[in-house]
């Protein structure tokens, strides 16, 4: 199953905003493993190796033929390096939550496809989580911050 893991905006001709998305799929479904040499439907050639990734996924952009990348950061770097780049990524590694005033959040890819989300409050409180599901990680870290008792 292909899952959207990041979205952003680039500007056509430097002016017209266009959207781009990065998706992930299981590495076992790599295009390099499909046999397309027959007139039948493409099928997986089990003798071809599964690309080694830290999280078992490959990442790609649908905007154009981006190829398959071993991490989300690699796919984003590819998009940023295109002539129409850089992309302004929605998560921007510093998600904001207006309903949580005083909190500041950061996202860091600690290894391929594994992230650390941290939240720091102006009063010194902090929360932190690790995970590979970026949208869920962001949501849970914000929830941790929401549930953290206020300092007295």
Instruction: Note the overall shape.
Output: globular
Topology order in helix (H) and strand (E) letters: EEEEEHEEEEH
The count of β-strands is 9
Rounded to the nearest angstrom, the radius of gyration is 19 Å
Quaternary state reads single chain
Structural class: alpha+beta
Mean pLDDT across residues: 85
Strand content: 35-45%
Arrangement of strands in the largest sheet? 5-2-1-6
How far apart are the termini?
47 Å
Helix content: 10-25%
Uncertain runs: none
Largest sheet: number of strands, sense, barrel closure:
4 strands, antiparallel
Q: Note the total helix count.
A: 2
Describe the structure.
Helix content is 15%, strand content 36%. It has 152 residues and is an alpha+beta fold. The longest helix has 14 residues, at 134-147. The radius of gyration is 19 Å and the shape is globular. The termini are far apart.
Produce a short descriptive summary.
The protein has 152 residues and is an alpha+beta fold. The chain has helices spanning 72-80, 134-147; strands spanning 3-12, 16-26, 34-35, 43-44, 57-61, 88-89, 103-111, 114-121, 126-131. The protein is 15% helix and 36% strand.
């Amino acid at each position: 199953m292909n899952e959207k893991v990041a979205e952003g905006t680039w500007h056509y001709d430097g002016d017209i905003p266009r959207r781009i998305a990065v998706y992930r799929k299981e590495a076992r479904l790599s295009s390099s493993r499909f046999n397309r040499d027959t007139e039948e439907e493409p099928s997986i050639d089990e003798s071809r190796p599964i690309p080694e990734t830290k999280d078992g996924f490959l990442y790609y952009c649908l905007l154009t033929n981006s190829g398959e990348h071993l991490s989300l950061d690699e796919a984003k770097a590819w998009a940023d390096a295109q002539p129409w780049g850089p992309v302004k990524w929605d998560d921007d590694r510093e998600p904001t939550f207006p309903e949580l005033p005083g909190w500041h959040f950061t996202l860091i890819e600690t290894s391929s496809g594994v992230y650390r989300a941290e939240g720091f409050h102006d009063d010194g409180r902090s929360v932190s989580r690790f995970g590979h599901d970026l949208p869920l990680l962001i949501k849970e870290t914000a929830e941790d911050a929401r549930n953290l008792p206020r300092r007295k």
